[in-house]
What does this fold into?
Amino acid sequence: MKKEETKAISLSKDALLSDAELPSCVAFLDEDALRLWYCNRATLKAVTLLCGLESSVPWDCFRAIIGLFVPNLKQCILHHHLRVSDTISDSISDECLFEIATLCPSLSSLDVSGSDVTDDGVKAIAATCTLLAELDVSNTSVGDDGVKAVAATCPRLAKLDVSCTSVGNEGIKAVAAMCPLLTKLTVSYTSVGDAGVKAIAATCPLLAELDVSCTSVGDGGIKAVAATCPLLTKLDASCTSVGDDGVKAVAAMCLLLVKLNVRGTEVTDEGVEAVEAACPLLNIMF
It folds into this structure.
C-alpha cells in the first residue's frame, strides 16, 4: 500500500478549500487551518496534527480537534516551541498527554521533544496507546520509569529518542526485552552505556540507526551491535570512548553502513581505513 504524503495547510481566515482539494493526510499549522478542516473533515482518512514553529493554537481548539473531530488521529507532534494561548501553562505538559491518552487510543507516533512532560504523562500514553511505534521524548524530564512503561505495553515500538533525558541502562534494557522491532534508537547525552547497548544488540536485529554520541559507550557496546545488527546504516558514536576495535567490527559486519560519525573518539586512521574499505558508500565524519 502506497504511503500517502502529508501536506501542510496554513490558510488565512477568508481562504476556502473544497473537499476535492483537501489531501487525506494533513498537517495543521495554525488555528485557521484547523477550523477550515472541520468543515471538510468527512473527506479525511488520517490526520497528522503538527503544532510547531510559528504555530499558535489555543488549547481548547486543540483539545476539541483531537477529541471530537479526529477519531483516526495517528500522529501527534507537539514541539516545545508550540505557543498555546488561553491556558495556564505555555508549554506541553503531562495534563496534555493525559487527554491525548484518553482520546486517541490509536496513536502510533508521538513527539513531545523539549516539552515539560514527565514519566507520569508517558505512563498515561503507554497505558492506552498500545499501538505506539514512534516516541520522541528528547530534552524532557522523562526517565527510566516512563520508558519502562512504554516498553511493557508497546511491543510495536520501532523508533525511540531519549536523548538529553535521565534515561539510563535500565530503561533501555526494558526496551530491549519487550520491543524487538526497534529500528532506530537515539540515546545521546544520557547515562546509557555498554550494558544498555549490548541488551539492544541481543534482541533487536532490525536496528538500522543508532546514536550513542556523548555517552559512556565504548568498543564493547559497538562490537555487540556489529555482531547482531547487519542492517545498520547509520551510527553516531562521536564523543565516546569507541576506538579502532569497535569500528573494525562494524566494518566487518555492517556492510550497509552509509553514515558514521567518530569525531572526538579514540578511532585512528587505521580504523577509518578499515571501514572505508568495507563500506564503499560510507560518509564518514572523523
User: Anything to note?
Assistant: The chain has a mean pLDDT of 80. The two ends are 40 Å apart (CA to CA). The first helix runs from residue 31 to 38. The longest strand covers residues 46-51.
